[in-house]
């Protein structure tokens, strides 16, 4: 039997994957006082204590003692379940999900199981203390990863690690992997330590394909969406799905909050998979639905970034025609169009993990910086 907690009403048991986005108390300190492990003098956090620190998730549930989080609402998951198996699998990844909290604990312990959440076999949790990375929980050796690492084969199995946090009060952020479905078995702090959930002032809702999901950042904190969210002082809500095209029905669904910023980054898969008529209709309908759903949000349509076959002509047309159609559909709706071709340098060896279409960490750094500058220009800052 699954133990499920609805954080807006902690006294009730309710259906799996209930909404938690707006349910975290903002000014309450919580003592770590659950399930003492006497030998190491640590406290294992319960579902509630973990849940109040989660950002980027729409729902959380306890399945046989493992804590699972979902970045999609129940309605959105059903859409992808009906759409195709690969999209549904990728919807289960933990892209954009984080734990953010203050604590005075000297130690942090994480144990997790993982399952496929993309076509990639490498994954990493990134641990940040006071905005600086102090370590990773991963299944690969970064030093020995080849330059073209995107399709390297690694084992997906339970993994655990302890981290030394030092003395004093500090802010901790745990970035969950974009590439796998995480099932937390244990997160522990020192016996008697406190946790205080942290929340950023703004929210960023990111729609897109594999590049938005995170392909092929080696570290989840290195994706363009994660970096952009930090720059905007926003909590990230990532709806990226590998292989995805414009999906108008998704833009009809609502989150439990009104996002301050929305980015939309489709088109590169449409160019390969679609025809001109279908693409124009789905692109237009997506933006119309999105603007009707979020009338007050700042929306940025990002046209596709460079890829090695950019000069080819597909059934849909040229790569430039993708950009022109997105602009034609978005601009009349007061949606800012950001041209993607200049965002990442046109060098597949140095900036693309697969030497083709998916940026590496360096490529994502260029992506985020150039995109952030474009947003600042549009805002008039």
Task: Kindly describe this structure.
With 381 residues, the protein is an alpha+beta fold. It has two domains: 18-197, Jelly Rolls; 202-379, Rossmann fold. The chain contains ten helices and 20 strands. It has helices at residues 47-51, 74-83, 85-91, 210-213, 224-231, 268-273, 276-293, 319-330, 348-351, 361-379; strands at residues 18-19, 30-31, 36-37, 42-44, 54-55, 59-63, 66-70, 98-103, 107-116, 124-129, 132-138, 159-164, 170-175, 180-190, 194-197, 202-208, 234-240, 261-265, 298-302, 336-338. The strands form three sheets. Strands 1, 3, 4, 6, 7, 9, 12 and 14 form an eight-stranded antiparallel β-sheet that branches. Helix 8 (319-330) links the parallel strand 19 (298-302) and strand 20 (336-338). Helix 7 (276-293) packs parallel to helix 8 (319-330). The longest helix is centred in the last third of the chain and has 19 residues, at 361-379. The radius of gyration is 20 Å and the shape is globular. 46% of the residues are buried. Residues 1-39 have low confidence and may be disordered.
């Amino acid at each position: 039997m699954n133990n499920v907690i609805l954080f807006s009403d902690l006294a009730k048991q309710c259906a799996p994957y209930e909404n938690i986005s707006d349910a975290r108390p903002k000014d309450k300190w919580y003592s770590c006082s659950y399930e003492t492990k006497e030998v190491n003098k640590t406290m294992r956090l319960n579902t509630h204590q973990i849940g109040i620190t989660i950002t980027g998730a729409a729902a959380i549930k306890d399945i046989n003692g493992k804590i699972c989080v979902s970045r999609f609402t129940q309605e959105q998951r059903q859409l992808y379940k009906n759409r195709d198996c690969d999209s549904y699998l990728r919807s289960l990844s933990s892209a954009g999900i984080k734990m953010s909290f203050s604590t005075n604990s000297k130690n942090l312990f994480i144990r997790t199981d993982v399952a496929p959440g993309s076509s990639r076999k490498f994954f990493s949790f990134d641990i940040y203390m006071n905005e600086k990375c102090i370590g990773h929980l991963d299944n690969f050796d970064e030093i020995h990863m080849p330059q073209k690492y995107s399709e390297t084969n690694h084992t997906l199995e339970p993994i655990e690690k302890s981290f030394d946090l030092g003395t004093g009060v500090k802010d901790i952020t745990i970035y969950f992997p974009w590439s796998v479905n995480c099932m937390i078995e244990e997160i522990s702090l020192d016996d008697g330590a406190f946790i205080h959930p942290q929340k950023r002032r703004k929210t960023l809702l990111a729609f897109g394909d594999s590049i938005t999901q995170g392909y092929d950042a080696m570290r989840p904190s290195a994706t363009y969406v994660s970096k952009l969210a930090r720059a905007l002082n926003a909590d990230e809500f990532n709806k990226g799905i590998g292989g995805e095209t414009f999906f108008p029905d998704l833009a009809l669904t609502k989150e439990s909050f009104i996002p301050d910023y929305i980015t939309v980054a489709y088109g590169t898969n449409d160019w390969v998979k679609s025809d001109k008529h279908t693409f124009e209709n789905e692109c237009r309908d997506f933006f119309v639905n999105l603007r009707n759903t979020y009338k007050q949000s700042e929306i940025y349509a990002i046209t596709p970034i460079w890829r090695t076959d950019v000069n080819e002509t597909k059934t849909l047309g040229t790569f430039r025609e993708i950009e022109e159609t997105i602009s034609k559909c978005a601009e009349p709706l007061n949606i800012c169009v950001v041209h993607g071709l200049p965002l990442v340098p046109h060098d597949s060896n140095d900036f693309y993990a697969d030497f083709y279409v998916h940026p590496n960490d360096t490529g994502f750094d260029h992506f985020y910086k150039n995109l952030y500058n474009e947003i600042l220009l549009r805002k008039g800052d």
